[in-house]
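Submission sheet (multi-component)
Chains listed below:
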Amino acid sequence: MSTQERLVRSTQELLWERGYVGTSPKAILERAGVGQGSMYHHFAGKSDLALAAIRRTAETMKESADACLSGPGTAYERVAAYLLRERRVLRGCPIGRMTQDRDVVQSPELRQPLDEMFGWLRGRIAEVLAEGQRRGELAAALDPAATAATVAAVVQGGYVLARAADDTAPFDAAVRGALALLASQVTPAAG
Amino acid sequence: MSTQERLVRSTQELLWERGYVGTSPKAILERAGVGQGSMYHHFAGKSDLALAAIRRTAETMKESADACLSGPGTAYERVAAYLLRERRVLRGCPIGRMTQDRDVVQSPELRQPLDEMFGWLRGRIAEVLAEGQRRGELAAALDPAATAATVAAVVQGGYVLARAADDTAPFDAAVRGALALLASQVTPAAG
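Outcome: structure written.
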């Protein structure tokens, strides 16, 4: 693995574990096992390296969410696949976590990939729901954009509740509750 | 205001703004305008002071949530009052925020008030929903505990989405979507 790659991966891990403010350049160098000179050869500094790491993490999340949302099945089944996909719930979301870091959200550059990722996610879920409506699977009265925001929020908020409890049960309950509500919007013919 | 009170309030503000790892004892002393000796007279250290601050914040949140949930109206209206209550959305939740701090969730003592607050919140929303079912206002098939976790997660996740976008719109959309789904569970007689 190249030095640059080791730096990006170490930063991804540290940001997830400790957040931006809790991640020192020294910790990144130690975890990557590279010297300070190498870091400044590839990156202008912590912020530049964090940007590369956040972009990479967001890209990976987008791919794994899209694998569920673009899979086979009805709109309900695809949203269910996204909500129920394997997650390391107690670690939380590496992108959602960044929104709690003041230095990240106050930097337009560092906030951009978070905004882009969640904007894409809400848009993609809304598309799936709208498709389900066009196919007559879901009630026409459902607001795809609002419901998509609800689905994305349930996952992010589920992490918060699970971490507070040090237990995945509240995450699972929140997902189960959301799916039951969404199931009530499945038309009798499609259900 | 007593020195002790100034220390607690300053710590509440700093934890909300910067998180636990981002809050130094020095910053607390500066904001409270007290000397180091005074702090150690009242508190054993940062962790002890943070515990007092987190407990206080959790207590306040509980009171304001309960004011909505124990208010007048149907179960739907009370949950709606909770979801729609005035919030400084872009500041996020001072308690939810703490779940992203590794030092907080890894300390059983500091995590306890977060667990207690969200556990109480889910329980109280579930009670309101179960009451609505007993009164015939809500569909009997609704799972009160799971739906309560969904409602609590929508608020916490709504903050995450709003902070990523630097815009309250995704929070409002998530709440609107959740309320529309819940409204579909209101029985025709009650609705």
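Remark: The CA atoms of residues 126 and 147 of chain A lie 7 Å apart.
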